[in-house]
Design a protein that fits this description.
- The protein is an alpha/beta fold and 384 residues long.
- The protein is built from 13 helices and twelve strands.
- The protein has two domains: 242 residues, Type I PLP-dependent aspartate aminotransferase-like (Major domain) (Aspartate Aminotransferase, domain 2), CATH 3.40.640; 127 residues, Aspartate Aminotransferase, domain 1 (Alpha-Beta Complex).
- Strand 2, helix 4 and strand 3 form a beta-alpha-beta unit.
- It is globular.
- The chain starts with 13 loop residues before the first helix and ends with a helix.
- Helix 1 runs antiparallel to helix 8, helix 2 packs parallel to helix 8 and helix 3 packs across helix 4.
């Protein structure tokens, strides 16, 4: 279908392309000066004495964050089933176990009121996920963590530039926050992510483990004016560094993050206005003092809706519109269900939301005409 409107596309400009060309011509194509600049720019964007450590994916970032926080075999980490599998799989990388907590119906975020009852002597951390660009209610989560001496690692893959109580996500009192720059995210480097922390020990551990457990940064060794060939391997680390090619894109994407958010919010409001009065449940809005990044526009089909979610998506495809579903809850997935003996009804809110959820196209390269097409298609299906 030649005029098919995809679910998502990255918004790459000439600035990003020129920066990539510059990196290629410089000879630095792996981790080098562009990556250093991207990390510095990211810390400056958030502000407040933070250190930013780039990685080749948010999955890698979450893995490093958990490892740096001392999560090990047999430990438990509280998180949500309403997320992509990466959130939970990194816990298993370390031999630890995810403990799932159901979500709030309106926000799709972890329900803080249900966390405390899941804490045991083995619980070592809480990993909230900011769904679709709307912040979790972090105040009670941080209070619970302090009460039980737990680490807090925020999965902020959807949350740039999200604010909670007028603070950018990344600046809260959590131990570590991890962002994603995957192709569909609010800003992109193609593949990539960023670890953010104000704890220098955690930062140093993440930097060491991101590149084979070596105690010196490769960029520093290769650019030193003195012989600097010597290094020490202090731990069995990983290969999680971000390249200068990717960072070249990120440098300019970051400059556009706020204007991207403004455009996404405009589009979200247009959807909400257009669908007023239809048997559709709109996404939750940000509270006063918060800011929604609008990474996703996830609506739900009302229970009075005549057709199933699957039929709705198929009809949208037939009208030339790409849609998606975020997410298939983890307790419905074979690995998680079988490993932890989970049942469909164990997380009733997540299950109910999933069965009716549809993600509509929402990205800054969409024109007004593109969005009008989506709106007209939805109305055609809903109104018959």
């Amino acid at each position: 279908m030649s005029n098919f409107l995809p679910f998502a596309l990255p918004d790459i400009g000439e600035e990003e392309i020129a920066e990539v060309v510059n990196a290629l011509r410089s000879g630095w194509v792996t981790t080098g000066p562009k990556t250093k600049q991207f990390e510095s720019d990211f810390s400056a964007f958030l502000g407040g004495g933070l250190e930013s450590i780039s990685v080749n994916s948010a999955t890698a970032g979450l893995h490093l964050a958990l490892e740096a926080c001392g999560i090990t075999e047999g430990d438990e980490v509280i998180t949500t089933p309403y997320t992509f599998t990466a959130t939970a799989e990194v816990i298993r990388y370390l031999g630890a176990h995810p403990v799932f907590v159901d979500i709030e119906s309106d926000t799709f975020n972890i329900n803080p009121k249900l966390i405390e009852e899941k804490i045991t002597a083995k619980t070592k951390a809480i990993m909230p996920v900011h769904f679709a660009g709307l912040s979790c209610d972090m105040k009670p989560i941080l209070e619970i963590a302090k009460k039980y001496n737990l680490k807090v690692i925020e999965d902020a893959a959807h949350a740039l530039p999200t604010k909670y109580q007028n603070q950018l996500i990344g600046k809260l009192e959590s131990d570590i926050t991890v962002f994603s720059f995957y192709a569909t995210k609010t800003i992109t480097t193609g593949e990539g992510g960023m670890i953010v922390t104000r704890n220098p020990e955690l930062a140093q551990r993440c930097k060491t483990m991101r590149l084979h457990g070596i105690n010196r940064d490769a960029f520093d060794r290769y650019t030193s004016s003195k012989p600097a060939w010597y290094y020490e391997v202090v731990a069995p680390g990983f290969k999680y560094n971000l390249t200068d090619i990717a960072s070249s894109i990120g440098i300019h994407q970051l400059k556009k993050a706020c204007q991207f958010q403004v455009r996404r919010e405009e589009m979200a409001k247009e959807y909400i206005k257009a669908f007023e009065g239809l048997p559709l449940i709109m996404p939750a809005l940000a509270q006063a003092g918060d800011l929604h990044a609008w990474h996703l526009f996830v609506m739900r089909l009302d229970e009075s809706f005549k057709i199933s979610r699957e039929e709705f998506i198929q009809k949208m495809v037939e009208l030339g519109i790409g849609c998606s579903v975020h997410f298939i809850p983890l307790h419905l997935q074979p690995y998680w269900r079988e490993t932890y003996k989970l049942n469909d009804e164990d997380f009733p809110v997540a299950l109910k939301n999933y069965r009716r959820a549809v993600s509509l196209p929402l990205y800054t390269k969409m024109s007004e005409a593109d969005q009008d097409r989506v709106i007209e298609a939805v109305k055609k299906i809903v109104c018959g």
